[in-house]
Amino acid sequence: MEPPAEPLEMLLAQAVAIARRRARVIARTVALDREHEPPGLIGMLHDEIDPAFIRRFHVQLHFPRPQVAQRLRLWARAFPPDAPLHPGVDLNSLAQIDLTGAGIVSAGHTAALIAADAGSEHITQEHLGEAIARQFQREARILAPADLAKFRVGASPVSPSRRRDGLLTAAFPR
Could you identify which of 1, 61, 67, 123 might form a hypothetical disulfide with 115, taking C-beta atoms 3.0 to 4.6 angstroms apart as the criterion? Predict the structure, then answer.
């Protein structure tokens, strides 16, 4: 095939090539979808989905939020045995805060990063409080400043701040 000489012909040749590649990808995707039909929906926002859409799923799985005893075990396992956790960290108070297992692990990792960023030798209750506040922000949930007060070391209280949508969120002063 002779290469196109005009800019318009070049543009059309590129468009045809892209369309052919996309058609192959779409055909391959459709074939795979027919082979491996997804069995159902897994998610935390079941109530947010239209019931007519949900009726099409063959299987629905429900993952309940962990209770206090389960959260205590999750917090205990959130840190490796050699993690520099401060002896004053109270896992029982952490377990009182309603987080999922993934939220607990994420908050634990965030607390470790906050401690490392601050140059601290230990992961403290204050680092965990800030990490939990960030996790609640990621989940678009509201955490009352009183809930975070037990994590604050020193005289400075947790200061509430107002988001653009008017909701109050808790944030530690930097």
Answer: 123
